[in-house]
Amino acid sequence: MAQQACPFLSIDPSGQDLYGEISRIRAQGPAVEVELPGGVRAWWITGLELNKRLLAGSETSKDAYQHWPAWINGDISRTWPLAIWVSVRNMVTAYGADHSRLRKPMAAAFTKRRVDALLPRVQEIVDRALDALEHVPEGEVVDLRAAFAAPIPHEVVCELFGVPPGEEGPRAALYRIINRFFDTAISLEDAQANAVDLYGTLTAFLRHKREHPADDLTTALIAAHDEGSIGEQELMDNLILLLTAGFETTVNLIDNTVHSLLAHPDQLDLVRSGRATWEDALEESLRFEAPGAMSGLRYAVEDIEIEPGLTIPKGDPLVVSFAGAGRDPERHGPDAERFDVTRATSRDHVSFGHGVHHCLGRPLAMAEATVALTSLFARFPRLALADPSRPPKRLRSIISTGHEELPVLLHGSEAGAVRKPSGPGGTRDTKAPRG
């Protein structure tokens, strides 16, 4: 095995220079050992084709209980701040036959027919958010992530899973919890408290759904449990996966696409003129800013030869970097760091996974984002970044790729006329949208 340079590259848990770190890792080779938050070492994979190989084949697993010796024997403490990304037992972390068993109850829920049936309701939710923005005084800065990008997926996923509305109910609690779930710079104490809050909220929610079944995906999961297809812990952990991924990924997709289009007005003009489509913009956004930079750890099921002289030993953890794959210059050329809605390779990314772990929710996420974007730019054709010279602060995460805030002016403005964002937003503990 090729020797890695010492010291190991230490990954900033706040994710503030994620793409800079990815570039430095890429320069060292196709697989580089790094130190993750909490001192855990893992191999980081940046290339698109190698990412696809490791996602699609049986060489790697996401089941730490079967394939990560350091987790099995206790070398990695259950108090590790990122432990919940390892400890959950759901269809994403399952391996082989268990993965197929856990994925099956969900596959029918995300069909094109079901997504199409949801579109009128998605449009209603989007229109309501836009109606609220109409009341913002001209010239006042709005945090578009908090006021638009976040409420839409939150409401859609909660309706899909039958989460009751109300400011004191599980819908509001889940909004608060999920905002902390992806914070990889969180303290150990806060991470543990958030996990307790999460499981407590879902336990109460499942009790409610068992007493009040309905035509929703949570009731379908409970039925699969009652039929013996999934266990109680698997029921809980699949809900965690579906509620968190169904929310955060779509929020980031809307947030990142709006920001990239506003930061590159020539690209927005291409879409508005019809020389590129909204789908082109979304696919390029997925490549350029993968909504999830990575999907947790994978583990080598066997020794994996990356190239002559470089082998990842069996049992070692590794990071499949969706963000790195999207900007791989070997696939996307020397300008891979440039946002270009006409790029011929824009659809060649792994932002929704690849192979057997390809995201079931992709059709819904793309439909939500398309409705949101087309409606937003139609309602506010002069939408502009509040301060184009100042990039928005990134989320504190190496997993979730988006912004803490997205300050905009709905009707354009004089350069430099920047005031504090109005409305909800500004922190990751934003109060849940109503509904």
Shape: globular
Helix content: 40-55%
Oligomer: single chain
* Highest-level CATH class: Mainly Alpha
Q: Report the major sheet.
A: 6 strands, mixed
Class by helix and strand content? alpha+beta
Low-pLDDT ranges: 1-7, 414-420, 422-435
Relevant CATH superfamily: Cytochrome P450
The pLDDT mean sits at 90
* Beta-strand content estimate: 5-15%
Q: Give the name of the CATH architecture.
A: Orthogonal Bundle
How many distinct domains?
A: 1
The arrangement of helices and strands along the chain is EHEEHEHHHHHEHHHHHHHHEEEEHHHEE
CATH topology: Cytochrome p450
Strand order of the largest sheet: 1-2-3-9-6-4
What is the CA-based Rg, rounded? 21 Å
Helical region count?
A: 18
Overview of the molecule:
With 435 residues, this protein is an alpha+beta fold. It has one domain: Cytochrome P450 (Cytochrome p450). Helix content is 47%, strand content 9%. The strands form three sheets. A six-stranded mixed sheet has the order 1-2-3-9-6-4. The N terminus and C terminus are likely disordered.
